[in-house]
Structure formats: structure tokens, C-alpha cells
TrEMBL record, chains A, B:
It holds the Pfam family Beta_elim_lyase. Keywords: Pyridoxal phosphate. One of its GO terms (molecular function) is L-allo-threonine aldolase activity. SUPFAM superfamilies: PLP-dependent transferases. GO terms for cellular component: cytosol. Belongs to the threonine aldolase family. The keyword tRNA processing does not apply. Residues 35-292 form the Aromatic amino acid beta-eliminating lyase/threonine aldolase domain. It comes from Cytobacillus horneckiae. One of its GO terms (biological process) is L-threonine catabolic process. It comes from the Bacteria. This is Low specificity L-threonine aldolase. Its cofactor is pyridoxal 5'-phosphate.
């Protein structure tokens, strides 16, 4: 059976909050009064009150709701570039703009990109020391998803922030998963955000909404972001189909991030106890990590599909490959806690045994 | 009382399908099974089946759902520009890209725009005769919204289409309100669309969905449009919150466009019978028209607010001004038919009397 199909047929899943189906929308709207007015082109109570709420969470003057982080981040970086009069920006070679946006940042905004750090590690203070003064903005992603959700230390963030301010370089936070790293940093969203000039937060990762993002910063920055939202085609007449679920699931899960983080550490430990299996990071610093297998991609797919059939616990629907690394991503949410302990125990017995015969 | 507030308090409204409130979403999802899978980044039954359905309606090979027409049309024109290797495009000076997109088309795509026709009339065949051969694409908007929804003749469309094909210029249709003009042309959507290389259709105008658009054309064109959707930040993980309502309201209203057209002609006649009031077009060719008043903008706003209070029928929440013209737009939908005839009669008696004393 194909991996994705075998995953769909499992009874439990290690990652996530449950199926992405229409019920997610229905749950969010169940208690909402049908007479409530829609937002209209960025105005109205439903959008303005949510923007104010998340701006306050992030300790920023203003916030604007975007349909996507792709759009929000391109807008943010373009604003900082226009401010300085230079299209030079710097980010990690595995950041979202580099690998998931079909080169939109260059094709639409003509950014001139410098890569910081490399595919094996996150950005550290030393990576910025020789940075071109002409760089308008540096983007940091916390956690660095494509590296299994790794993080620099909070002290490093403080140093990078101070350095960028001194150099007149704007610092932007790809905080798609910002809430997910707060338990590790033992900081509030506002304490992390204040190190950055602009912050993007996603509502369908750990929060588990349908789609949508917030971009926050000072008032003049956010006013410009609203104009770029219109230019990109993101100033939809009604965004409430995403805003109401974003708010609903934010309230439902904002205080569960520490649980997801604890679960991730526990689960990673179980994987690392299996001979040949390793996780990155070895000890997670958020709700996510990567599981690396000493197999070729096709072998890993068949291997995991068999585990799905034997255990009815879903590990992943997709195996990834980078260089000679074969791995899959796990982002923990509500699902993990609902798996019976003996079923989990059985999963790791099966995994351990299969590893012995497969490798 | 302010015009917008007085409009909100009216019992009936001449235009539209009813309030833009959460009930629109609730109605669309009421009969949908919660177990139905979401679309995921452009894939899945819910998005693919709708794209196939609208492609068939428009007689095109493929279609792609976009969150907005702004994004869809910038993508379409960029594809045609890249094909020819020239950023020159041509459209009407009052088209959406020129006046509602914060100059996004130039700032993101560096289009070099030639205006065809002027602010008093639609594009005719003669406007294209001396067009630069380097122009990659011409955009026609049917009906031309900012001119009260005026149209060229179908014969003119055929001539323009043949001319562009001969010259190697791509012809794009801003068909945001395409279904609304079919009763006047006495043509199918496919018969109009086949004159164009690419077609955009909106789902929250006459159809009355929440937001969203379709862009249709040949397979290679649509494949490129999907890439531009990703680049713009429009390839959302889930677009079903717009697609399911688009489909629901398309089915509900696709066969009512002739009724809306007949209503528009009847209502325009009543306005034109009032001394000093005129409509553009004098006889509508779709469900929409503009009502021009011989008053200054502030006078018109106070005048209409008074009518709202006296008749409890809403004319408009917004008066517009262009040059020395003061007018408001009416786009007819389900609301008009629900107004009692005697209430409508009373409205025009009040309007006639007030015009006598105000002008």
C-alpha cells in the first residue's frame, strides 16, 4: 500500500490535531451568531478586534491579518527594503521564502539574498559579523522548521537583535511557530517579539486553524503592510472564514504548547531508544522534530507503511530526503495524548524489531 | 444620520442578495458533511472538482481557484507577458488593475500599461487599430463596472478577438461579472469565453459567494497560473472556506441572472422617470447600473439618508464622485424581488417630490 494511503487508514496519528476536514470549520463557527457582520476589505469588528488582540499578545503597536505567511513575509521584507533603498536581505538557506515560494520573493520583489549559516545548523551571532551594511533586513525563523525545529539560544537572539539595531538592519521574525517555542525559552510572546522589528505568526500550525497569518509591528509598518496586502491580491472582501477559526483555535490551544513540547521530548526519546533511529534535535525544543531513518527513501516509505498496517498508529504520510538524509517531520498536537499508552508501547516494540531485520 | 448608518437601518435594499454576515457561510456549509476532506495546497476533491466544473462552464481546458481576482488577473497578464518577452499590456483606464490595486500590477510585475478608450466609454475596435505590436495582452472587462456596467456589442468582441489573434496579442477577459451579461448577449459563458485566451470569473458579485475567483485557459497557462498563485502567497493550505460557498451560491443563482437583468431594466426606468435623475447606462445591459444625481456629493449623501429614513428602502451606503459626476452603483440580486410593489411605488413618489424641492 502507498504510504499516504496507509497513513489515512490508521486509527491514531502521532502528529497534529486531527484530520483537516470541514468539521474544523464547523466547530469554529458552531457558536458564532449568523447575524454577526462580515469584515469588509480589512475593516469591521471581526478583523479589527482580532488584529488588536494579537498585536497585544506580541507587544506590537499594530497587526494586520493576512491570508498567508508567504504574502505577509514578502510584504514585511519589501517594506524594510524600501525604507533603506536596498533590496538586499539575508536569511537561512532553508527558510520558507527560499524553498517553498517558487522563487516569488525574487520574481515579485527582486530581493538580493544573502544566505546565513548552512543546511546543517541555525543562524548564530558569528554569521552576522561580516554582513554587508547594505542589507535592509535579516529574517530569523524560530524554530527552524527544515532543521527539525532547532533554535538558537535566547542570548543569541538578544545579541543578534542588538547587533542589527546598531547596524541599522531590520530584524524580521518568521514566527509561524512562535507560540510553540515559548515553553523552551520560558519567555512570553512579547518578550521574544520585542527583539524584532516585525513579526509573523501563523494560525494553522500548532494553533490548528484553517489558514491565515498575522503580521505585526509599528503603526507605520503595518499601514504599509496593508497596502502590500492589497497589491498582492490578499485584501479579500471577507477574511472571516479564516479569522474566526484562527481566534477559536488560538483560544483552544494557546495554553497547551507546553504539553505539546513535553510530548515531543517524550516521543523523541522513544524514537532515539530504537537502534538506528535518531531525531533532530536529539531533544526537541518545541513541539516538533525530525525522525531520521538509515534507509533509502523508497525503503523508508515501505517500512513505515508496514508499521501503519501492523500498529494502526500513523507516523507520517510523507518521507523527505535531503542529501543522504531520509527523514519525516513530526509536529505534536492534540492527537498524541489520545493514543493509549499500550498502543504506543506496541508501536515502539514493532519499530525496534523491524529495524533489526531491515537495516 | 450618516449615509452608511441610515442604509444599515433600512428594512429593504434595492441592491444585492442580503447582508454580508456569517449566515452566508453557515448557509453554504449547512448541508456539507463535516467528514469531507479539506483541499491541501490546491489538491483534493473539493477544489479539483470545482475547477473542472467551472472550466467546463467556460469551455476551457483547465481552471484554477484563486483567493482573489486581483491575484488571478496579475498572474494571467504576467504569464502572457513572459510568453512574449514584453511587459506591455493594454486596458481601460478605469479597469480594476488601474484603480483598485494600489498600483500592485506595476510595483510587482512592472507592467507597461497603455490605456484604451477613456473614462466616458468602453473599448471599441477602433481603439486597437494602432496598438503597439509589442503589447503582450489586452484586457477587456465585461461589463465595465466603473462605467455603470456598459458593454461593447458581441460583434465588437468578435472583431477584437480576431484582430488580437492575428496580431499575436493575447486577449484576457475580466469576467468578474461574466454570468451577469449573458442574458443581454444571449450567449453561453463558453461562447463568450472562447473569444478570449484567459478568463477570470468572480464568485462574490452576482453569484454572492464569500470571496474567490476562477482563472481559466489552456492547460499550460493554468499550470503557470498555479505557480504564480504560490508566488503571490495565494496557494493557501485550505481554500474550501471560499470554494464550498462559491459552488453553493453558483448553483443557487446561476439561472437567476436573467431575472436580475430584467429587474435592473425595470428599476432604471423608474429612476429615469424622476426629473433630474439619470442612469448609466440609460437601459442596463446586465444586473447593474449607476444612478446619477444633479447634486454635490455631500448634498447627495444627506438626500439619500433622508430617503432611507422616510421609506425604509436602502438605495446605497456610498455615493461616489468622478469629475463633476455624482452617482451611486446598483447591482441587483435577490433583494429587489422581495420589496413590496407599493413600497417601491412610495420610494419613487418620495424621490420625485424630494428632487423637486432639492434641485
Amino acid at each position: 500500500m502507498k504510504l499516504a494511503d496507509s497513513y489515512k487508514q490508521t486509527q491514531y496519528q502521532l502528529a497534529g490535531h486531527g484530520k483537516r476536514n470541514i468539521e474544523v470549520l464547523k466547530e469554529a463557527f458552531d457558536q458564532v451568531d449568523g447575524e454577526m457582520d462580515s469584515d469588509i476589505y480589512g475593516e469591521g469588528h471581526v478583523i479589527e478586534s482580532f488584529e488588536r488582540k494579537i498585536a497585544a499578545l506580541l507587544g506590537k503597536e499594530r497587526a494586520v491579518f493576512f491570508p498567508s505567511g508567504t504574502m505577509a513575509q514578502q510584504a514585511a521584507l519589501r517594506i524594510w527594503c524600501d525604507e533603506k533603498g536596498s533590496r538586499k536581505i539575508a536569511y537561512h538557506p532553508l527558510c520558507h521564502l527560499e524553498i517553498h515560494e517558487e522563487d516569488g520573493p525574487r520574481k515579485l520583489h527582486h530581493f538580493e539574498v544573502t544566505h546565513l549559516a548552512d543546511e546543517t545548523r541555525v543562524i548564530e551571532m558569528d554569521d552576522l559579523i561580516n554582513i554587508d551594511d547594505g542589507v535592509s533586513a535579516v529574517l530569523l525563523e524560530l524554530p527552524q522548521r527544515e532543521l527539525g525545529g532547532r533554535l538558537p539560544s535566547f542570548e543569541t537572539l538578544q545579541k543578534i537583535s542588538a547587533y542589527c539595531r546598531e547596524k541599522g538592519i531590520r530584524l524580521h521574525l518568521d514566527g509561524a511557530r512562535l507560540l510553540e517555542v515559548l515553553p523552551y525559552y520560558k519567555k512570553t510572546a512579547s518578550e521574544v517579539s520585542k527583539l524584532f522589528d516585525s513579526v509573523y505568526l501563523s494560525f494553522y500550525k500548532g494553533i490548528g486553524g484553517i489558514a491565515g497569518a498575522i503580521l505585526a509591528g509599528e503603526e507605520s509598518f503595518v499601514n504599509q503592510a496593508r497596502v502590500w496586502k492589497r497589491r498582492h491580491g490578499g485584501d479579500l472582501i471577507c477574511l472571516y472564514p479564516y479569522i474566526i477559526p484562527a481566534d477559536h483555535f488560538y483560544e483552544k490551544r494557546k495554553d497547551k504548547m507546553a504539553d505539546y513540547y513535553v510530548s515531543a521530548k517524550e516521543l523523541a526519546k522513544s524514537f532515539n531508544a530504537c537502534n538506528g533511529v535518531t531525531t533532530i534535535p536529539a531533544e526537541p525544543v518545541s513541539n516538533m522534530f525530525h525522525v531520521h531513518l538509515p534507509l533509502k527513501k523508497e525503503e523508508a516509505e515501505a517500512f513505515i507503511a508496514e508499521i501503519h498496517e501492523e500498529t494502526t498508529i500513523g507516523l507520517t504520510a510523507k518521507v523527505q530526503e535531503r542529501g543522504n538524509q531520509v527523514y519525516f517531520e513530526l509536529s505534536l498536537g492534540d492527537n498524541y495524548q489520545s493514543i493509549p499508552k499500550d498502543a504506543l508501547g506496541h508501536l515502539f516494540t514493532v519499530l525496534e524489531n523491524k529495524m533489526k531485520t531491515s537495516v
